[in-house]
Request: fold
Amino acid sequence: MSRRSALRRAEARAALGFLSPWLVGFAVFTAGPLLASLWLSFTSYDAIGEPRWVGADNYRELARDPLVLKSLGNTLFYTVLHVPLTMALALGLASLLVAAGRWGPLFRTVFYVPAVTPPVAVGVLFLLLLNGQSGLVNRALRLFGVDGPQWTSDPAWIKPGIVLMGLWSFGTTLVIYYAALRNVPEQLYEAARLDGANAWQRFRHVTLPMISGALFFTLVVNTIASFQVFAEVYTMYFGTARTSAGAEEGLFYVVYLFRQAFEFLDMGYASALAWLLFLVILLVTLAQVRLSRRFVHYEGRR
Amino acid sequence: MAAVTGAERPPPAAARVSGRRPGGRRRGGGGVVAVAALAVLAVVFTYPLVWMVGASLKPRAEVFDGSPWPSTFVWHNYVTVFREIPLLTWLLNTGAVAAAAAVTVTASSALVAFAFAFLRFPGRELLFGLVLATMMLPAAVTLIPTYAIWEAMGLTGTQVPLWAGNLFGSAFYVFLLRQFFLTLPPELLDAGRVDGLGHLGLFRHVVLPLSRPALVISLVFELRASWTDLLKPLVYLQEPHLFTLPRGLKVVLDRFGQGGEMRWDLVLAANVLATVPMVLLFFAAQRYFVQGIATTGSR
Reply:
């Protein structure tokens, strides 16, 4: 008996050894900074001098700053369009991949390539593709007799252009759905067909519940990523050739946070911005988890 | 993970007899329509990249003519781009940083994943839940204090902060590797124990050699993540000779592109050089990319 508990203690000690990189990293690079940024959000800090306690000043400023609302609005606009459009596009194409049988994996490869393109390169590329006069997007629209908008300079079209750019890199979501769809047991479709279910009913009552796990996962992950879009928009609209329209409509939340912290060196204020982002993401994720409970319950009942 | 390659397996005999393989209803006439639709969409999705490569080889005045095919191939664009900007240095920097990031994160995450997969200790489930929770934490929240840490160590302005955090493992890879470790046959571990291997011995001589696919997944994912990252190089690097490609590319865009000299041929050449290694990596390690994504997507 005591020998067994001695063994168990030895195993726990060994585990501590194996876990030590993560434990140290968690303390130093996750938990520590998380608390430190909360503290910094109540200070005035320029990264050179010592942080100076200013109470809730940063949060009062947050409520007054029109650019907070602007950047949060831009980011929400993007998220609300990007996430469902990506999911719909990926699901549509994943269904086509399944329907294409043995050709599916080949096309999966082709559609995934944009997702390995570096975001900065994507930003540069879309700056040119979306160019109002000579960009490929408007050239393509012209083929259909549509006179495309000035995607990169008309304030009303900058964000839709960014949404379009985001859709191009939908490959990861596609790969997840393709794998999920191929995991749906064929017998379920056979049974549904015997019950006289038509194609829509089979999709609605067999496919959707069976891939609801993948749908939920991509919903959460894509939403969190959308709130943190940075590299592509920063590349396109910030730098030496900043235009006022781009700086306004392309001001996504993390771009604003980055500029406050590392361009204006207002790190206390940027920390308050970071905590607002953290709370927004947390609330949205929790809401999605609650939503998913109904989802999962529904699947269980069927 | 086997499910990923499921549809490439030959159909069971019974399905063949009835003339219907699994997924058979999705083939035949429907299959042709699907392949045709996919072919059209594939052209739409890859056209921007094809155009990018073509435009990078065009004479300067032709860049915007919409054609993916240069009237004359100006290979010299690539000579110019190497001469005018320190592209070779940036390529080497990016490669070195990405390699360091990938190796460190894989080694450390494998150690941690081993503990979660094979060792019993109090609070294991709770701690693993914490690992998963940190995946959801936005990087922006810890960015500023992390910067302060590297600043206090005198390491801002060097490439160290771009990879050294990876020495401590990363939740995503811990999760990925643990999932894979759990699929290893327990008999093999038992055999190792019978042979007198300790935990470290099991890790090195049994688990690691059997987990090569998962380790490769971790390596290629982090290579890609590090190679393409802009935020960290933007925060930590000031001197051009230390830049990584994304950081340098932004400078090239600002200097030669809009508002600059309007040398889009050069900007695109640099763009191609930043993208091609990732496309090659993806083609070389495609199966690992797909497996890795499917593993994380199916939890």
